[in-house]
Amino acid sequence: MKRFGLAMLMVLGLGVSTVLAEEKKNPADADGDGKVSKQEFMDREASKAQKDGKEFNAAAAEKKFAKTDRDGNGFLEGEELVKKPKTPHSPEIPPAPASEAPANE
Question: What is the CATH number of domain 26-81?
């Protein structure tokens, strides 16, 4: 039944990734309100650094939060919580100039 619901959302053009993000609790969301505050994000980054035996870099974490908080509201929520798959960057190939375009005969 869950697949049917997701399929319907896709047919309706609704954000499936947002629904999936809401279904899965983010471990950084300490208070369970469905969004990650800047403090929750910083605490999670510090905890990850300690677990990995690394020094916590607050400035880098602040920069990462600001980049991820695309709407600038001070919280990570919805689409901001969905990890995008990393893909290699491939430059777009520009169209051929009109003088090189094949003629329609």
Answer: 1.10.238.10
Is this prediction's pTM over 0.70?
A: no
Residues in CB range of 21: below 8 A, 6 or more apart: 78, 79, 81, 82
Give residue limits of the domains in the chain.
Answer: 26-81
**DSSP letters along 4-44, please?**
HHHHHHHHHT--HHHHHHHHS--TT-TT-SSSEEHHHHHHH
Per-residue pLDDT tens over the stretch 37-55: 999 999 999 999 999 999 9
DSSP state at residue 82: S
Q: To 10 degrees, the CA torsion angle through 14, 5, 26, 30?
A: 100
